[in-house]
Amino acid sequence: xSRRFQNLGALLxxxxxxxxxxxxxxxxxxxxxxxxxxxxxxxxxxxxxxxRKLSESFxxxxxxxxxxxxxxxxxxxxxxxxxADGYTLLYMTSTMIVNVSLYSKLPFDLAADFVPIAPVxxxxxxxxxxxxxxxxxxxxxxxxxxRNCLWLRRQRQRDAPCD
Length: 163
Hints:
Layout: H1 2-22, E1 31-35, H2 42-58, E2 62-66, H3 73-81, E3 88-91, H4 95-102, H5 110-113, H6 146-156
Parallel strand pairs: 1-2, 1-3
């Protein structure tokens, strides 16, 4: 009976100490957010805004490191080779998906080396023409639609002919 209690005591001590180790708060040290584009661009600006909000939310510093070049493949490779401890994040854009089809040999596997955390922004794309063309006209064959014209109207705060 004494041996059984010793084993139970050892098991309880193991469980108690391991749960204390697992309960450490994240992040316990600064977190690096790697951006694959030069400072000052839209991707960098959004990553810096996001890092500031994460720093405020978690009470730990999230800082941006720019590693531009090779269509963000340099940054992706650096993050893929970093320790998988959650202290190096990659701020990734749709460029990564294009790179898989453009480059025959990448130094990382997009599906295996990265796990998406959350979508950050939804940036609309707009087709623009010279202002001498009126909204709603046939530009290169049926591009404008009533929906696009209504969007333009909201953006310009004026009435545009949409018929």
